[in-house]
Amino acid sequence: MKKFILLQLLLSVSLLADITLTAEEEKNWQIKTVMGREVSHIPLGEYVTTVAMPPKLLHTLSLPYEAQIIQLHKVNFEKVDKGESLAILTATKWIEAQRKAIADTIELMHHKHLTEHKAKLCKEEIIAQKECLIANAELKTDRIKLSASKTLLKAYGASESMMQKLYKELVIFPNLELLSPVKGTLLQVNIQPGKSVSPSSALFVIKVDGDDWLESNLPQNIASRLSSSQEVIFTINGKDISSKVLDISPVINPHNQTRYVRFSLPEKSKLLAGLRTKAKIRVKGKAIIINKKAVVQDGSRSIVFIKKGARYRAVEVNVLAENAKSSYLAYNRALKGSIVISSTSVFQNILKEAK
Hints:
Elements: H1 2-11, E1 18-20, H2 23-28, E2 33-35, E3 37-52, E4 58-61, E5 67-72, E6 79-80, E7 85-90, H3 92-123, H4 129-156, H5 160-169, E8 176-179, E9 184-189, E10 196-197, E11 204-208, E12 212-219, H6 220-223, E13 231-236, E14 239-248, E15 258-265, E16 276-291, E17 296-298, E18 301-308, E19 311-317, E20 319-322, E21 326-330, E22 338-340, H7 344-354
Antiparallel strand pairs: 1-19, 2-22, 3-12, 3-16, 4-11, 5-7, 5-10, 6-9, 7-8, 9-11, 12-15, 13-14, 13-16, 14-15, 16-21, 17-18, 18-19, 18-22, 20-21
Helix pairs in contact: 3-4
């Protein structure tokens, strides 16, 4: 009986690979169909990833001179705001720089008055113009020296308010408040109260607030489907994270045929640097998801059977991705109909016999 039905099916195959079944034949072969579901993202698989910290987010704070720590205001892993006090210190060079700045200020004031006085005498031709030219040159030199002193004080850590008071009131500040230049988190605090620190040593290491990296070595066939700046979605511990491709290695690791890929990791993800975890990766793309049983192989082609009324048509598909249960097919308007998900071997045999 089944051989007779199969013969009838063979006779019903048209040049367009259409197959017509009666209601009884569909029942005998237990044909089942479902509608494919359109999706906007395509899975690439699950891979081990590592959270890394971009070097540009690390800010090291040091001093260009030897200093002694008087007070410490922050410790490891505390949050700090830009301009917030980290420590109080004192240093011989800091005091010397202030003294020089005050001396340069006094000298400038003296030469300024002297130049103004000589300018009046030159105007009345009491003294030679040469004297005024010399006085102006000296005044210009003093201004340059004072500007250099201000630059040095800024490099030493003086604030604007501190410098204004120093130049206005000509007072020396014995201590200096070390302020955070950025907003972030303290990763390292390498000083202690009462201890001295050497020039250029790292006193504080601050991680600036910002996006981290997510890195992975992906199989070549997966990495080749990615491009720079492409949007991707990671699923880590059941949570979706929007990201994009930053860098893809131009070479393949010959030992395991993988390529290094770096992705952006938004700060709001709250994943810590150094974390190794599995992540599911999806890329943006229009596709049809269907039961994996619906896809059959016809030589090198992947095909599905679409039902249109009483007729079934073989449609070649491009399988973009698949998992244990589902296949993701490149979007095709022809896949919008009911797709056969059972007894597909019957249709496959019919196609083979019809060739």
